[in-house]
Design goal:
It is built from 20 helices and 15 strands. By secondary structure, the protein is α/β, with parallel strands linked by helices. It has a 7-stranded mixed β-sheet, sandwiched between helices. Strands 11-12-15-14 form a 4-stranded antiparallel β-sheet. Strands 1-13 form a two-stranded parallel ribbon. Bound molecules: pyridoxal-5'-phosphate. Pyridoxal-5'-phosphate (PLP) binds next to helix 8 and strand 8.
């Protein structure tokens, strides 16, 4: 049969839309939308026929329309189960929020709020006011500002304080943070001239001093958050840089990255620089993310000297990068956990980090036992969990995984991809040809879905 005559076998749009199976979709979403999707499905079918395929039956096209409807109306992005053991996974949305942070976003998103109104006077207020006392209390800074994310905080800070001037950066800190975000590019975008000093592994205060001139707008220090320089190294302490800058009014800007407000060494990890330390070292402004080790929503936070923060607030870019009300509400609620001394138990990323390996092992054992009853064979093995998200490079926590050896006719990759296709997708990892799931990063309420997904996939 020729392609042209086969094309004639395709049903009309009218016939597709009138299929019984599409009646509920027409009722729910209106005829117009179903007609449009039927056209799209028929276009796809026509292209297939032109490549030599037989014309699909009307019912098959109606099925295709139904799946287009489902795609259009499905929530997206949708929840997944993070069984990778990587606590702050940027591709999986970084920090899960605490109950209080979620409730705060919900309450403010659902209705109106005192976002920019002073309830005492009835006059216009500042959305930044909501965070001031919390951030001052936690970090010891004079003032604070929250914007869309840390990248935009840096862009704003550099633009407001050093546009048209030189910014001195150690060669070891002119880094790429990830996703194309590079310190030299941000400087250029902010209208600053990068003056890099020292070498990749060693930089001294005298390098900064030698490069200083009346053109110097700021010293920028950036935490090498996603790699480690080891061995013969020397980096300049913030205190020494502050002392150098004070002689001629050059502020030190410190990008600490992850926003660790608790001491990471308490959990057996290397020390991650904290905003508190930078403030007490006298740094002018400290920059950090809201959704890394701080454990809140996406945000960029700037704390530091009052006059410097005020210059950022007045800059036109401040409006372009401002934080939205739901993030602001959940950030405030997250910060309150730190003030109340309950961050370790209430902020999910800290709960995950502080969970000891025995607890993780117990959960893996529970999963293993239930799976065994479902005829799925698994082992429980020691492993390491990474922190991730551009913090604590190379640092891991002792952990345990549920480990499954795929049957000989299946690759571990195919098991991983089947897990991603489950109703609640599960993201696992492969090590030594086995599929591994680390319970540390799986929320307790996701245990059942995880076991169900594994059972379904291993029964395939
Ligand atoms: C992650 C990171 C950034 C970027 O922060 P976002 O909140 O993702 O914009 C900037 N600097 C450092 C050192 C970082 O680790």
């Amino acid at each position: 049969m020729t392609t042209t005559s086969e094309l004639r076998n395709l049903p009309s749009v009218e016939r597709v839309v009138n299929a019984d199976s599409l009646a509920p979709a027409v009722d729910a979403h209106g005829r117009e939308m179903v007609v449009e999707l039927a056209r799209e499905a028929l276009d796809v079918a026509r292209k297939r026929v032109l490549t030599g395929d037989p014309a699909p039956a009307g019912e098959e096209i109606a099925e295709a329309v139904l799946s287009l409807v489902a795609n259009l109306t499905a929530p997206s992005p949708r929840p997944v189960i993070n069984a990778t053991g990587v606590v702050i996974h940027t591709n999986l949305g970084r920090a899960p929020l605490s109950d209080a942070a979620l409730a705060a976003a919900d309450a403010v998103g659902r209705g109106y709020s005192d976002l920019e109104i002073d309830l005492g006077t009835g006059r216009r207020g500042s959305r930044q006011a909501h965070l001031q006392s919390l951030l001052r209390r936690i970090t010891g800074a004079e003032a604070a500002l929250a914007v869309n994310n840390n990248a935009s905080a840096l862009l704003l800070g550099l633009s407001a304080l050093a546009a048209g001037r030189e910014v001195i950066v150690s060669r070891g800190e002119a880094v790429e943070i990830g996703g194309g975000f590079r310190i030299p590019d941000v400087l250029r975008q902010s209208g600053c001239t990068l003056v890099d000093v020292g070498t990749t592994n060693r930089t001294y205060v005298r390098d900064y001093a030698d490069a200083m001139s009346d053109q110097t707008g700021a010293f920028l220090k950036a935490h090498a958050s996603n790699f480690r320089v080891e061995g013969f190294t020397a980096f300049v302490d913030e205190r020494d840089l502050v002392a150098l800058g004070e002689t001629s009014g050059v502020p030190v800007l410190h990008d600490v990255g992850s926003g660790a407000l608790l001491p990471t060494e308490r959990y057996g990890l290397a020390h991650e620089p904290t905003p508190q330390e930078s403030i007490s070292a006298g740094v002018g402004l400290v920059f950090f993310s809201g959704d890394k080790l701080l454990g809140g929503p996406q945000a960029g936070i700037v704390v530091g000297k009052r006059d410097l923060v005020a210059r950022l607030e007045r800059h036109p870019l401040a409006r372009a990068v401002r934080i939205d009300k739901m993030s602001l509400a959940s950030l405030t609620a997250t910060l309150a956990h730190y003030v109340m001394g309950e961050a370790e138990t209430r902020v999910p990323v800290w709960r995950m980090i502080s969970t000891n390996a025995d607890n993780v092992r117990c959960r893996a054992e529970e999963w293993r036992a239930i799976l065994a009853a479902n005829r799925v064979v698994a082992r429980v093995e020691p492993a390491r969990s990474a922190i991730g998200g551009g913090s604590l490079p190379g640092e891991t926590l002792p952990s345990w995984t549920l480990t499954i050896d795929p049957p000989s006719d299946r690759s571990p990759e195919s098991v991983l991809s089947a897990l991603r296709e489950q109703p609640t997708p599960v993201i696992a990892r492969i090590e030594e040809d086995a599929v591994r799931l680390d319970p540390r990063t799986v929320l307790p309420e996701q245990d059942d879905d995880t076991i169900q997904a594994l059972t379904a996939v291993m029964a395939q």
